Amino acid sequence: MPHPKIRLVLRAVIDANSTAAWDTYSYREYLVQQQLFNSADAPVTTFSELLSVNLKAKQLHFLTGMAAYSYVAQLKGSYHRVTGVLCNTFSVWYL
After folding, report:
1. pTM for the structure as a whole
2. Is residue 14 part of a domain?
3. Block mean pLDDT (10 aa), the chain, length 95
4. Between 18 and which of 23, 28, 31, 33 could a Cys-Cys bridge form, CB atoms 3.0 to 4.6 Å apart?
């Protein structure tokens, strides 16, 4: 009998207040890449604002993801800071 699989979805908010090293590197990469799409005359500060001003900013998903790939590889299949509703920290493995 095959083993059932459970798929978990994680949403991590990465911004200027992030303290984890991986988040800090990812946010810095986002800042570098978003300069391509942000206006020098009227710059915006959030990704959602940037998308509303410049539709080509959708490329940031790919551009930042490619740069963050090496950071993700350093996790070696685990992501250790997932906290449950009871404040328990879980290790999540991705395949």
Report:
1. 0.63
2. no
3. 75 79 81 88 88 90 80 68 66 52
4. 23
